[in-house]
């Protein structure tokens, strides 16, 4: 039994080898043909097919033609049904697009529709000025949305005192330092803080931690501390405003050091900015 199976496998390998060799020879033979030989072989093939069709019995020819007609009919029916289905879906999406509601329209996205050209998407430039409060608005915004047509009058925002104004608008030499770390400079003068028992931070690709959103889970309490720190504790937040010294100069230096140390501002430029803002 083992010899029979082994011989059968050898026979299969021999047949496969002969088939592969024959296919290789056929490819080589076809690649070596000239253009005239190719045209002559195509002509001979057409003549052979014509002769076969002529010699084919009439009932066989009719059966073959009938099968071909059925296949073509099924192919056309499939194509028509698919086109009809696509047209129906496209019309449905288009009707939803031109309607007042865009609800769940993204789940029926159709690449052939120019969504960016819809009137509800193209809002134009914000170049319409309110005649009462001079607010800039878009074309289709309600007329009284900003100030209720002059009924609400807000006082004008006063220009900040110097050197804060120069730091904000970029005219101060230290403006770049201030704007780059404006959150830290703002924290230097805050009187309270928001603490939590557990802080969850995200980490970006550079390994830096950040908070994309601020979420509070649990209950918020307002805790009031003392105006002076506990022994061996540094001054923080509101306590910094009650720091003293031997004179006004030393008191200012103590406050600047406390503000900068707590917010990791250690450059001379940062300390000069904090000192100038503390003197306001």
TrEMBL record:
Bias-annotated ranges (Basic and acidic residues): 61-74
Domain of life: Eukaryota
Region (Disordered): 1-87
PANTHER family per UniProt: ATP-DEPENDENT DNA HELICASE, DNA BINDING PROTEIN-LIKE
Protein name, UniProt field: Helitron helicase-like domain-containing protein
Species name: Eumeta variegata
């Amino acid at each position: 039994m083992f010899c029979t199976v082994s011989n059968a496998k050898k026979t299969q390998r021999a047949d496969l080898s002969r088939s592969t060799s024959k296919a290789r020879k056929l490819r080589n033979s076809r690649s070596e043909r000239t253009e005239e030989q190719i045209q002559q072989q195509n002509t001979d093939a057409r003549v052979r097919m014509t002769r076969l069709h002529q010699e084919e019995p009439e009932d066989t020819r009719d059966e073959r033609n009938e099968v071909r007609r059925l296949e073509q009919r099924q192919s056309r029916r499939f194509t028509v049904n698919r086109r009809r289905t696509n047209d129906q879906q496209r019309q449905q999406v288009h009707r939803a697009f031109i309607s007042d509601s865009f609800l769940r329209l993204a789940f029926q996205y159709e690449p052939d529709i120019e969504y960016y050209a819809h009137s509800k998407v193209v809002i134009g430039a914000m170049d319409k000025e309110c005649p009462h409060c001079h607010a800039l608005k878009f074309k289709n915004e309600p007329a009284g949305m900003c100030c209720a047509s002059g009924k609400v009058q807000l006082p004008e925002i006063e220009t900040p005192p110097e050197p804060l104004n120069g730091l904000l608008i970029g005219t101060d030499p230290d403006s770049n330092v201030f704007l780059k770390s404006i959150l830290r400079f703002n924290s230097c003068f805050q009187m309270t803080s928001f603490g939590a028992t557990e802080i969850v931070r995200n980490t970006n690709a550079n390994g830096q931690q950040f908070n994309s959103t601020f979420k509070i889970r649990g209950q918020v309490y307002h805790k009031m501390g003392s105006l002076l720190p506990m022994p061996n504790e540094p001054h923080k937040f509101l306590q910094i405003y009650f720091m003293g010294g031997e004179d006004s100069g030393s008191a200012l230096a103590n406050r600047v050091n406390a503000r900068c140390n707590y917010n990791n501002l250690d450059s001379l430029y940062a300390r000069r900015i904090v000192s100038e803002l503390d003197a306001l």
